[in-house]
Amino acid sequence: MSHEELPTDNPAVVTCGLPYANGDLHIGHLRTYVSGDVLSRSLRTLGQQTAFVSGSDMHGTPIAVNAEKEGVSPEAFALRHHETYEETFPKFDIDFDNYGHTHDETNAELTQEFVRQWEANDHVYEQEIQVAYDPEADQWLPDRYVEGECPYCGEHARGDECDEGCQRHLEPGDIVDPVSTLTGNPAEYREREHKFLRLSDFQDYLNGFINRLEGTSNAQNQPREWIEGDLQDLCITRDMDWGIDYPGEGAEDLVLYVWVDAPIEYVSSTKQYTERVGTDEYDWESVWKDGDSEIIHVIGRDIIQHHTVFWPSMLKGAGYNEPRAVCATGFVNLDGKAFSTSRNRAIWADEYLAEGFHPDLLRYYLATASGFERDVNFSWERFQERVNNELADVVGNFVNRALLFAARNFDGTPDVELTDETEVRIAEAMDDYEDALNDYDIRTAGEVAVALARYGNEYIQNEEPWKLDDDEAAPVIRDCVQLVKAVSVLLSPFTPEKADDAWSLLAETGSVADATIGDCLQPTPETFDEPDGGLFEKIDDDRVDELNAKLEARVEATEAAEPDETEAESETTEETDAESESESEQSTGPADVEPVSDDRISFEDFQDLDLRVGRIESAEGIEGADKLMKLTVDIGVETRQIVAGLKQLHDAADLEGKRVVVVANLEEAELFGTKSNGMVLAAGDDADLLTTYEDAEPGTKIK
Across residues 310-322, what is the average pLDDT? Predict the structure, then answer.
């Protein structure tokens, strides 16, 4: 990878974590795909050659289990969902250059080619392992056919992941007290030969890779536990019929693990794109095999390990290029709570469109409501606020005012030069936009576009051209027409249809999607007509009340129909069916935080908390725990050992010497066999540690 500032002369590919072909899409699922689409469009706006690819993940036990329940073949079941995704994504202007699936011939052949290359390079070995077996069903139990207790944290776990506890990847035979999901009976472990990819071969390589990797901080920090610890080899075969056959002799009755063929679909989909457009337009081998390229993965944060440990090892072992960046998005919550598909507590993709809302409104909200790696807290009220206050009042209002005045008074662009002040303002916005994208910060890039429109609104309001004669008004309106063009270009990746409408109002030729950032300062057309209305319609309060009432009624109806059903958190569709749980957004401003609790405590209750300034003397990860660190903290009167969930979010070396806020009179606890005497306070899912404004001494009481 080049790691040069974007745009580079190298071809780029942006991929999105494959949606798992196992259920309907809601707006929580759409966040990753909208983010990937915005990023790929933005890179093209910078002038970067970019392909945007993905595909449906068709294999794995959840699909086989659900297909069996429906009485259909796994292929028919998965294809039905794949076709739904193919139809849904374009409705939100998620414009993949190629969208395939893991069961097609291209991916099957390329996956087997990868495995043969690993074998040729001596990265694969065979080993007898314990695999769960159901004697009553006379069947092996891979992955989600078995559940039981996690060997690391003791929580309930399913198949290949501890989805209710420590989130660790689990290998066959790891589950304690296994139970068959087919019959509900206890399973037994039997010896079985399986194939393994020797990840330990890549440990030194991964240590360097994770330090080169760009993208979001959670993708850079979370994998260090696995990479810097004892890296366990990956079992790459499963005992089932549904999947890609293991190539070669001696494994005819085994298929490849879903996490082998799923990421290889990134390569396969890129290859299919080349086969359609030709190597002169885009050469997949130059991206994945030859020279420098810019490979950027946009995924959900629940599959970071797979993309920063498994996937780079798979690529390295087969002689392919490594990713330049991994950008892991947070989840989307619904009014402070996780989506619950079992209770129908979700905003479904088709439902959003059926309500008559333009897709650009949701695209803008999902891409700019919070930073890439933070959760987005959706509610109809927050959605209304962002649409009304930013898109309608700022962008739409500015475009309409500027072009209406220009068309009525000058028949288009006034015949004067752009002022130096406005040219500098647009140039600064272009630089800020480019800087944001090089930081993979699409939220800030979107804010740059809206800020430029806000500047234009203030400019018109301050100059009051309607009070000036034409000679005096001409420079003001000339500037504003140029600002409209710049806003259209910069906002295009976020609201492609509405930005193109603004482009057309200017009588610009072609589509704004083909414009690059340099066009922001190119001359505007001499003549254009008056706009016939605003770009964005406001959402009124009655509409929001109606939408909330519909959601509440639907949830109540579902709960009444199934009163005993346990609440299940929203299912992620990104290359796994593991259920996802996340807290609401905590640090992105009033529109994106969880509502304050109505339950109050007395001042006397607050005084019972003994909050002290502490200084972290040392920090180290707790073996076997994904999230936990053991801290030694000086609180003035003594030094305490405190366990904190910082492992995936902070480097141990960076914590030493940091001042923090400690709850000193919390009851002692034991976590993962380690005593914890106190609590370190932090904000949000990224564990933003609370500290002091100045250098208060350890032990200072917080009042």
Answer: 97
Is the bond preceding 312 in cis, omega lying within 30 degrees of 0?
no
Side by side, which strands form the sheet with 139-140? 139-140, 124-134, 188-197, 234-235
Structurally, the chain folds into a number of domains equal to 3
Q: Which residue shows structure tokens 């610009």?
A: 508
Both 266 and 338 in one domain: the answer is yes
In the structure, how many helices (H) and strands (E) does the chain have? 22, 27
Same-domain check for residues 331 and 204: yes
Residue 582 has a pLDDT of 30
Return the minimum-mean-pLDDT range out of 266-275, 306-315, 356-365, 620-629. Answer: 620-629
Q: Residue 153 annotated as binding?
A: yes
Neighbours of 120 (CB within 10 A): 12
- pLDDT per residue as tens digits for the range 477-525: 999 999 999 999 999 999 999 999 999 999 999 999 999 999 999 999 9
* Residue 416 structural domain: 379-521
Query: Cα(153)–Cα(211) distance, rounded to whole angstroms?
Result: 29
CATH number, domain of 516, equals 1.10.730.10
User: CA 491, CA 32: separation in Å to the nearest integer?
Assistant: 19
Query: Do residues 320 and 463 share a domain?
Result: no
What number of other Cβ atoms are within 10 A of residue 640's Cβ?
21
Q: What is the pLDDT of residues 610-664, one digit of tens each?
A: 899 998 988 888 875 667 889 988 898 788 999 988 876 787 777 888 898 989 8
Over the Cα atoms of the chain, what is R_g?
A: 27
**Cα separation of 66 and 85, whole Å?**
18
**Is residue 442 within a helix (H) or strand (E), and if so which, with residue range?**
helix 442-463
Pairing of strands 50-56, 98-101: parallel
Kindly provide the residue ranges of all beta strands, DSSP E only, lying in 282-359, ordered along the sequence: 294-300, 325-329, 332-334, 337-338
CA distance linking residue 271 with residue 475, whole number of Å? 51
CB-facing half-sphere around the CA of 490: CA atoms within 13 A: 32
pLDDT in tens, 22-51: 999 999 999 999 999 999 999 999 999 999
Say if residue 480 carries a ligand binding annotation.
no
Cα–Cα distance list, 570 to 44, 76, 394, 496 (Å) = 33, 24, 34, 29
| Residue 341 assigned as binding residue | yes
Rounded (5°) CA angle 375-380-386: 75
Give the model's confidence band at 590: pLDDT under 50 very low, under 70 low, under 90 confident, else very high. very low
Residue 162 labeled ligand binder: yes
Domain assignment present for 701: no
Max avg pLDDT among 331-345, 364-378, 621-635: 364-378
Same domain for 110 and 55? yes
Note whether 627 and 588 are same-domain residues.
Answer: no
Q: What is the DSSP letter of 56?
A: E
Phi/psi of residue 128, each to 5°? -80, 130
Strands (DSSP E) contained in 467-510 are none
